[in-house]
From TrEMBL:
GO terms for cellular component: lipid droplet. One of its GO terms (molecular function) is oxidoreductase activity, acting on the CH-OH group of donors, NAD or NADP as acceptor. The lineage of its organism: Eukaryota, Metazoa, Chordata, Craniata, Vertebrata. Belongs to the short-chain dehydrogenases/reductases (SDR) family. Gene3D superfamilies: NAD(P)-binding Rossmann-like Domain. SUPFAM superfamilies: NAD(P)-binding Rossmann-fold domains (SSF51735). PANTHER family: PKSB, SHORT CHAIN DEHYDROGENASE_REDUCTASE FAMILY 16C MEMBER 5. Pfam families: adh_short (PF00106). InterPro entries: NAD(P)-bd_dom_sf (IPR036291), Sc_DH/Rdtase_CS (IPR020904), SDR_fam (IPR002347). This is Short chain dehydrogenase/reductase family 16C, member 5a. It comes from Eptatretus burgeri (Inshore hagfish). Keywords: NAD, Oxidoreductase.
Length: 306
């Protein structure tokens, strides 16, 4: 009986793997239809500048109810004003330091009371220190982990239960290519992004295991983006380029509306992650030298107000 079951399951595995591989190839040519998000309530952390602001404006055009969180009150208000001009019917602005557990819980309760349940959660807020590990203070490292990954724990705790209860929602994690590929000068940042990717993947698996297939997940892993966060860096390789923020945001929105589980931007990141999985270490160091990767953080200036 056990043998027959194993045989049946193995047969199913082979047939379905083949089917899903063909489906994935087909989807490269004919992408999944974009879903409507007009009735969704979208919360974006770090909405006061960069990717968070541009995402807010794109979602505003899609007529969602927007909830904008940031510690930068002026930037957040500016984003809200721009979102209203883009036609968003409801824009709600909150000051929230999402690295602080109690503050996330408090502001999340306020949001639930004043706006209602959040149905799409975009964890975007992030910081980078940009120093070698040995020169980074304990407080700086702690802050990077708190903003870039622990905040995701606290926001999921606050908003995921309602999504599970309704079997409806979308969790978007703005991680980074640094969540799969490492570089010198960003040990804390890379660690936080690896953790963010691992966390988001595990929760995605939990949704599948719980048969909550109405709760979608998207992990976003871009290369450098010209928002100011990595000011001063001059990546020399077209494989890991400095990207235009508007281009990145179009790609993110497209991936979210098509319920894509993960997106790496540009596509060369997929190739580098694949290479990394089998390439001998010495060859990868050679490649890093060849692409001047070791030098990228030498000219880092970053944002002044981190
Ligand atoms: N810029 C890049 O090169 C790049 C590349 C890959 C991934 N990313 C990721 O994209 C996301 C957005 O980055 P960006 O380039 O738009 O940066 P940004 O500095 O322009 O925006 C980050 C926003 O987060 C806010 N923020 C910081 N700490 C916060 C906190 N504790 N609570 C609430 N808000 C906080 C800031 O005030 C700011 O408005 C980040 O998670 C970043 O790691 C950026």
């Amino acid at each position: 009986m056990g043998f027959l079951r194993t045989l049946a399951e193995t047969f199913e595995l082979i047939v379905l793997s083949f089917f899903y591989s063909i489906e994935a190839l087909f989807r490269l040519v004919v992408p999944q239809r974009r879903k409507s998000v007009a009735n969704e309530t979208v919360l974006i952390t770090g909405a006061g500048s960069g990717i968070g602001r541009l995402l807010s404006l794109e979602f505003a055009r899609l007529k969602v109810t927007l909830v904008l969180w940031d510690i930068n009150e002026q930037g957040n208000e500016e984003t809200a004003q721009m979102a209203r001009e883009q036609g968003s019917p409801h824009v709600h602005v909150y000051h929230c330091d999402c690295s602080r557990r109690e503050e996330v819980a408090r502001v999340a309760s306020l949001v639930k009371k004043e706006v209602g349940d959040v149905t799409m959660l975009v964890n975007n807020a992030g910081i980078v220190i940009g120093k070698n590990f040995i020169d980074t203070s304990e407080a700086e490292m702690q802050k990077v982990m708190d903003v870039n990954v622990m905040a995701h724990f606290w926001t999921y705790k606050a908003f995921l239960p309602a999504m599970i209860a309704r079997n409806h929602g979308h969790l978007v994690s703005i991680a980074s290519a640094a969540g799969f590929l490492t570089m010198n000068g960003v040990a804390d940042y890379c660690s936080s992004k690896f953790a963010a990717v691992g966390f988001a993947e595990c929760v995605a698996l939990e949704m599948i295991a719980m048969k909550k297939d109405g709760v979608k997940t998207t992990i976003v892993c871009p290369s450098f983006i010209n928002t100011g966060m990595f000011d001063g860096c001059k990546p020399q390789s077209q494989m890991i380029p400095m990207l235009d923020p508007k281009y990145v945001v179009k790609k993110i929105i497209n991936a979210v509306l098509r319920n894509q589980p993960i997106i790496m931007i540009p596509r060369s990141i997929y190739f580098l992650v694949y290479l990394r999985s089998w390439m001998p270490h010495k060859v990868s160091f050679l490649l890093a030298h060849y692409t001047r990767l070791f030098d990228v953080m030498k000219t880092f200036v970053g944002r002044k107000n981190n």
